[in-house]
TrEMBL record, chain A:
Coiled coil: none
UniProt function note: Key component of the cytosolic iron-sulfur protein assembly (CIA) complex, a multiprotein complex that mediates the incorporation of iron-sulfur cluster into extramitochondrial Fe/S proteins. As a CIA complex component, interacts specifically with CIAO2A or CIAO2B and MMS19 to assist different branches of iron-sulfur protein assembly, depending of its interactors. The complex CIAO1:CIAO2B:MMS19 binds to and facilitates the assembly of most cytosolic-nuclear Fe/S proteins. CIAO1:CIAO2A specifically matures ACO1 and stabilizes IREB2.
CDD domains: WD40
Alphabetically ordered keywords of this record: Repeat, WD repeat
InterPro entries named in the record: CIAO1/Cia1, WD40/YVTN_repeat-like_dom_sf, WD40_repeat_CS, WD40_repeat_dom_sf, WD40_rpt
GO biological process: iron-sulfur cluster assembly
Cellular component terms (Gene Ontology): cytosolic [4Fe-4S] assembly targeting complex
Subunit structure: Component of the CIA complex. Interacts with CIAO2A and forms a complex with CIAO2B and MMS19; the interactions with CIAO2A and CIAO2B are mutually exclusive. Interacts with CHD1L, ERCC2, IREB2 and POLD1. Component of the MMXD complex, which includes CIAO1, ERCC2, CIAO2B, MMS19 and SLC25A5. Interacts with WT1. Interacts with CIAO3. Interacts (via LYR motif) with HSC20.
Similarity section: Belongs to the WD repeat CIA1 family.
Record-given protein name: Probable cytosolic iron-sulfur protein assembly protein CIAO1
Matching Pfam families: WD40
SUPFAM superfamilies for the chain: WD40 repeat-like
Top-level taxon: Eukaryota
TrEMBL record, chain B:
Protein name as it appears in the record: Essential protein Yae1 N-terminal domain-containing protein
Any Pfam family: Yae1_N
The organism of origin for this protein: Pygocentrus nattereri (Red-bellied piranha)
Endpoints of the signal sequence: none
The Essential protein Yae1 N-terminal domain, residue ranges: 25-63
Superkingdom: Eukaryota
Recorded family membership: Belongs to the LTO1 family.
Length: 333, 141
């Protein structure tokens, strides 16, 4: 493997606690992290080092599971096990809590901003996915509640270019939602995984969706086009590739992010893997190969992996040991 | 039974007694079981029917009340809320919840529940109605 993954630095981000998620701000100048210590931390670069710029510690009563930046970078949403989602507004170098979105019956597992910046999606252990709309006066309103899953919903992600939402659940399925008559509905259900689907990621063009599961595989899905000739109905998705055999130990948690043709996964075996797409393969049947592997990226489960939005190859990860690590991925090809 | 000579009949009736009693007992038990099952099934159906209709009627009453409260408001926000409330009402009116064999019963019920939660969120109404509906818990047949 001539491709390399090299460590850049390590931060003890959430001491004595788990760090659940890291997210780069849209321009990549800030990194937000959240964890079991109920806090959200904002990190910024000072020279060669990353320093904690501020700590948002009184927003939640329980673990903060995910953070998400708005596309404009002025707002941060944090989803917590305390059943609420906090919206923070950036004010100079600090953040203040703008509003708290309530409604879920129990732990909120994920929050995601739509690329338009007007919509927000949250999902929860209460099996529902909520879609919120924000207006010019920073007022948030619930537009739809959808109960398509039969179990805990782990992750929601928006399509990068269309108004389309995808969710992953403990019920082994992925649901795709579209708006119809002011109401959001599940338009397609992707079946194939044989265990909990933990995470989803669209590729930057929105042509394919990658899902990772407790069944130790990563699946790549594509929307069926009418002329496919395999009798599939409009709006259905099919699995075009399954990556298996790579995550040998129990990948209790896998996180994955696409960037160009590389897919990064974070695993419960403490490792980080980068997969690259074989460009010579048929686009209808993509092939991915393991390009780089860092076996002991952290001393415990790696919970999240995030590609830097601007600097190619820069990657952040975080772990159950409370650490954040930054890596440089280099590929010759 | 075919006519048998008295000596055959005596032995037969002893040897076959066990078998005969088993058959008779089975038949009696089966009839009793059928009777009990019918009663239990009916109760089960009644209870579930009552639960479902109580829930749907609750949402319906809720929707009608809020419709009344919001319909005369000129406020833009109120119009949006009214639309959502009307949508809830529409959903309820539309599906045949009285038909237990309706194939999409569960699905449509979930949709109504989800809509109700969304409407509560818009109206800023807490969804914990436990105190109000405790009366229905006392239902028994």
């Amino acid at each position: 493997m001539k491709d390399t993954l090299a460590p850049v630095l390590r931060l003890s981000a959430h001491p004595d606690s788990r760090c659940w998620y890291v997210a780069w701000s849209p321009k990549g100048s800030l990194l937000a992290s959240c964890g079991g210590d109920r806090a959200v931390r904002i990190w910024g670069k000072e020279g060669d080092n990353w320093e904690c710029k501020c700590v948002l510690s009184d927003g939640h009563q329980r673990t903060v599971r995910k953070v998400a930046w708005s596309p404009c970078g002025n707002y941060l949403a944090s989803a917590s096990f305390d059943a609420t989602t906090c919206i923070w507004k950036k004010k100079n170098d600090d953040f203040e809590c703008l509003t708290v979105l309530e409604g879920h019956e129990n732990e909120v597992k994920c929050v995601a901003w739509a690329p338009s910046g007007n919509l927000l999606a949250t999902c929860s252990r209460d099996k529902s996915v909520w879609i919120w709309e924000v207006d010019e006066e920073d007022e948030y309103e619930c537009v739809s509640v959808v109960n398509s899953h039969t179990q805990d919903v782990k992750h929601v992600v928006w399509h990068p270019t269309q108004e389309l939402l995808a969710s992953a659940s403990y019920d082994n399925k992925v649901c795709i939602y579209k708006e119809e008559d002011d109401d959001w509905e599940c338009r397609a259900t992707l079946e194939g995984h044989t265990s909990t689907v933990w995470s989803l990621s669209f590729d930057p063009e929105g042509q394919r969706l990658a899902s990772c599961s407790d069944d130790r595989t990563v699946k790549i899905w594509k929307e069926c086009t009418p002329g496919d000739g395999d009798g599939s109905t409009d709006g259905a998705w099919k699995c075009v590739c399954t990556l298996s055999g790579f995550h040998i130990l129990f990948p209790f948690l896998e996180r994955l992010k696409h960037i160009k043709l590389a897919l990064a996964t974070a695993c419960g075996d403490d490792g980080v893997r980068i997969f690259k797409e074989d460009t010579t393969a048929d686009p209808e049947q993509p092939v991915f190969y393991l390009s780089a592997h860092m076996p002991k990226a952290h001393s415990q489960d790696v919970n999240c992996v995030a590609w830097h939005p601007q600097e190619a190859g820069l990657l952040a990860t975080c772990s159950d040991n409370g650490e954040i690590a930054i890596w440089n991925y280099h590929s010759d090809a | 039974m075919a006519l048998l000579s008295p000596s055959d009949d005596l032995f037969d009736s002893i040897l076959m007694a066990d078998d005969r009693f088993h058959v008779e007992g089975y038949r009696e038990g089966f009839e009793e079981g059928t009777r009990q099952g019918m009663i239990e099934g009916r109760n089960h159906g009644r209870l579930h029917g009552a639960k479902l209709s109580a829930e749907v009627s609750f949402y319906h009453g809720f929707a009608l009340t809020w419709k009344y409260l919001l319909q005369n408001s000129e406020d833009v926000k109120a119009r949006k809320r009214l639309k959502a409330v009307e949508s809830l009402d529409g959903l309820i009116q539309k599906f045949p919840y009285e038909d237990p064999q309706y194939e999409n019963l569960q699905e449509d019920m979930e949709r109504v529940r989800a809509k109700f939660r969304q409407v509560c969120s818009l109206l800023n109404v807490a969804v914990d109605f436990r105190e109000y509906v405790s009366g229905s818990a006392g239902m028994a047949f």
